[in-house]
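Progress note, sequence design subtask.
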């Protein structure tokens, strides 16, 4: 089981998400919970495409952290 980083951004109409580890894998939703659910489905679908084409499954390689700075 792999864990892929997703980035969630608030938009004017809800939320959007993408994974820096999986080019082109994106999702949108009205709520944060919805976009997380849709992103999980998008990742599963994306990986099914790799398997169908007999391509190697990309390994997660992105990390995240927060840094505190004076504003």
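Output:
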């Amino acid at each position: 089981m792999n864990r892929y980083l997703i980035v969630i951004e608030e938009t004017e109409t809800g939320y959007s998400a993408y994974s820096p580890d999986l080019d082109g894998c994106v999702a949108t939703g009205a709520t944060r919970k919805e976009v997380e659910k849709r992103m999980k489905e998008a990742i599963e679908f994306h990986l099914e495409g790799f398997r169908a084409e007999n391509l190697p499954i990309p390994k997660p390689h992105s990390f995240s952290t927060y840094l505190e700075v004076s504003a």
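Residues 32-52 form the longest helix (21 residues). Work on this subtask will continue into the next period as scheduled.
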